[in-house]
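Entry for zinc ion complex. Fields follow.
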Amino acid sequence: MKFVVVDVQGYVINSTFTVKELAIYDGKYLKSFLFKPTLKYSSLYTADRKTYHNIHGISYSAGNVEYSEINNILENNLSSFDIIFVKGQVKVDVLRKYFAEWTHIVNLENSVSSQVPQLEPTKENCDNHKLKYSNCSIRNVYVVSDYIYKKLIE
Ligand SMILES: [Zn+2]
């Protein structure tokens, strides 16, 4: 059984969740992507700006991947796996938005185990983040993957 862990950090623009940082980890190889903004900062609603600044601390203008590439990136990197683990409904929704037919997504948030790790803002995050405490998709995929491996050997 081949599995992979996916995490995204993003923000809501015009009521739609937009991915900023995407991390994919299969236990061996980490792939991460930082997407360019889809809209000018000046055209965001005030509420969206506030959400943006308080979640993950990634500069709005940061990014080197065109957002239009997200379908290809997800398809190329996830299609060969039997199970895709995520934690959080937002992440399930993101994956389903691009690939509605994927039925092998497991949301660990629905697990009854109390040992499923909390994905809260921490100091352990990658260089994309400007806040001291922030949520980092790269850190999250490592944490979730560690949890799954521990479960498998129990
Ligand atoms: Zn990060």
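NOTE: The radius of gyration is 15 Å.
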